[in-house]
Amino acid sequence: MPKLDSSVEHVVNKVVDPIGVSQIRYFAKKFSQIPGIIKMTLGEPDFNVPEHVKQAAIESIKENDSHYSEQAGIIGLRKAIANYLNVRFDLDYDPESEIVVTIGATEAVYATFAAMINPGDKVIIPTPTFALYIPIIKVLGGIPVQVDTTADGFRLTGKKLSEVIKREGEDKVKAVLINYPGNPTGFVYSKEQLEEIVDVVKDKEMFVISDEIYAELTYGKKHLSFAKLLPGKTVLINGLSKSHAMTGYRIGYIAGPEGFVKNALKMHAFMVTAPSNPAQYAAQEALENGIDDASEMRVVYQERRDYIVGKLNDLGYDTLLPEGAFYTFSKIPAKFGLSSVEFCTRLAEEAKLGVTPGMAFGEGGEGYFRMSYASSMEDIKEAMSRLEKFTKSLQ
User: Fold this and answer.
1) Which residues form a coiled coil (predicted)?
2) How far apart are CA 235 and CA 149, in angstroms?
């Protein structure tokens, strides 16, 4: 095994080197090593990919679809995405020039920021949120401006956004990122709440990046895309990982105005050339003939959500009812005197229950923990039993 030569050990990107690994992944891996643990850490659907979707991938391989696709993705998939966005969310995108198929929503996020940010530019990130955004902005030379939303029920208000833009400098702020339904909170913005944000940014030289990967997983309300309210300044990010349980297929996409998408496509092409053909044909099948595949999952997730939120609140962990996604985000009682890492580590080691510390979701997450209810009801009930015993031991 080669050892890094001392002459090159300091030849390193000085921004990347000090950035830690994903804390979500770190704790998931750490806790997974505990024998007998119930894992409620990762946002991994416990459903299988629909059979008709798997078959499309198989047929692609059989038909020798083994050559490079167009860099923006196969046109059939881009047309399917455009149609899906129109049918589901009343959005109008040209599949030829306004949609790019990416390697999951993760690459969509990177390509979007890379096409937008110059060194010193600022991006507003409401927290707690999926913390991937923050290191990407730093690597690209931008400045992530974290805004704690816990006092406002996990939403970015128009008033708060306006205050932050004024404080940071209107000439420096180039974008605000919103993630809804929210990870880790499950928060879903109403039309009125989104319009507050629109009113603030519509006349400013800044984008809205709207990560809507959980759009199909809302409970009791229909998802309203930010792109419907401000299409000319919105970059929409979505994918099939959550809606069709296709996390391993790695298909996401960017949709936005052509003037922006052309540069996002350049960055995408520099990084990955093109997505995998079998995965693209599977995604096309999912959107053409499986547009309602998520409906069964929604019913099951909602049943789990109702059960777990009731139990958490009964045990003294203040938890808002998530209106989307498949996570709960609960307050750790102050009387325990434990940080989120201390609480979750003890819960894993003493009760064999793995959850994610709130600190993994940015500055607004400390003092909370996230549980994924993308697990069987059997595991959820056992998890609540273990949490109850652990809670009593702390009291």
Assistant:
1) none
2) 22
pLDDT of residue 171: 97
| 355 neighbors 342 (Cβ within 8 angstroms) | no
C-alpha to C-alpha distance for 364 and 146, rounded to whole angstroms: 8
What tokens appear for 179 in the block? 């993630």
Residue whose C-alpha is closest to residue 212's, from 245, 192, 187:
187
Give 97-139 pLDDT, tens digit per residue: 999 999 999 999 999 999 999 999 999 999 999 989 999 999 9
Peptide bond before residue 181 is cis, with ω within 30 degrees of 0: yes
d(CA 53, CA 55): 5
Segments of the chain scoring below 50 in pLDDT: none
- Could you count the other beta carbons within 10 Å of the beta carbon of residue 374? 23
**Six token digits for residue 191:** 């039309």
List of E strands, the chain:
38-39, 99-103, 122-127, 143-148, 173-179, 207-211, 234-239, 251-255, 327-331, 353-354, 356-357, 368-372
Paired tokens of 185? 């909170």
pLDDT at residue number 254: 98
Buried b (16+ CB within 10 A) or exposed e, 348-370: beebbbbbbbbbbbbebbbbbbb
CB under 8 A, 24+ apart: contacts of 60-69: 60/277, 60/278, 60/280, 60/281, 60/282, 61/278, 65/277, 65/278, 65/281, 66/277, 67/277, 68/273, 68/274, 69/274, 69/275, 69/277, 69/280
Sheet strands side by side (includes 122-127): 99-103, 251-255, 234-239, 207-211, 173-179, 122-127, 143-148
pTM listed for this prediction: 0.95
Q: DSSP labels for 173-191?
A: EEEEEEESS-TTT-----H
Q: Which of 167, 179, 238, 232 is nearest to 206 (CA)?
A: 232
CA dihedral for 374, 245, 211, 263, sign (positive or negative): positive
Give SS3 for 258: helix
Answer yes or no: are the C-beta atoms of 187 and 154 closer than 8 Å: yes
